[in-house]
C-alpha cells in the first residue's frame, strides 16, 4: 500500500497530517555525522514525541570520506532513517562507482537503503548507470518535472519503457510545463502525473508519494491529488 511523505526545511513546519518526513543534511544546524550521542538521542526522542519518522534523508559528502559515512550511518540507524538519498554531486561521474559501491555496502550493513534521483545537471547518471550499482539495497526517486525540463514526456518517453520501475521508492508529485518547467497545479501541466501514478499502482506500488511545496500550495496539491487518486 502506498504512503505519503512530505519534504521539509525544518521540523517546525506544517506537515498537513503527514508523519513521514523528507529532510536534507544540515537541517538541524550541522551535519548528522557530527552529532554526538546526546544530540542524536534528543532528536530521536523528539521524533518519537511528535510521532514522526524520517523516511528520506539527503546527504552530500565526498565518497572518499568513509569515516564521515560510517558516523552518519550509525546515527541514521539510531534514528531509524529508512532511506538515504545520495546527492549526485557527491558522485560526479562513473569513474567513482567503485567508491559508491562501498558506500552502498556501508548503508546496507546498517539496514539503510540508498536512493538515487536522476537530475538534468548530472546527465551521466541515467538508468544504465543506475544498473551498474543496483543491488537489493538501492532504489530510485522519480520526479516527472526533472524529465520535462529535458523535453521528455515523463511517462510515455521515460517511465513506460523503464526496466527498473519496480525500484522506484518515491514518486514526486509535481507538475509543470514542457520546456520551461514552470510549475502548475496537478493535472494542469505536462508531467503526466496521473499516468505515472496509475502505472505504479498497477504494479502494487508500496512506496511514497512525495509532497513538496514546488508550487507553494500544499493544501491544494493534496486536495487535487486525492481527487485524482479516487478516479483511478
Task: Characterise this structure.
The structure is a single chain. This protein is of the alpha/beta class and 232 residues long. It is 36% helix and 17% strand. The protein has an 8-stranded parallel beta barrel. Strand 3, helix 2 and strand 4 form a beta-alpha-beta unit. It contains 9 helices and 8 strands. The mean pLDDT is 95. The radius of gyration is 17 Å and the shape is globular.
What is the compact description of this entry?
By secondary structure, the chain is of the alpha/beta class. It has helices at residues 37-49, 66-78, 88-91, 97-109, 127-133, 144-148, 154-159, 193-202, 218-230, and strands at residues 3-7, 20-24, 53-59, 83-86, 113-117, 138-142, 168-172, 208-211. The protein contains nine helices and eight strands.
Look at the helices and sheets and give the structural class: alpha/beta
Number of helices: 9
Helix fraction? 25-40%
Please give the largest β-sheet: 8 strands, parallel, barrel
Based on CA atoms alone, the radius of gyration comes out at 17 Å
Secondary-structure element string: EEHEHEHHEHEHHEHEH
- Number of E-type strands: 8
- Report strand order across the widest sheet: 1-2-3-4-5-6-7-8
Global shape:
globular
How confident overall, as mean pLDDT?
A: 95
Q: Cα distance, first to last residue? A: 15 Å
Runs in which pLDDT lies below 50 for 5 or more consecutive residues are none
Strand content: 15-25%
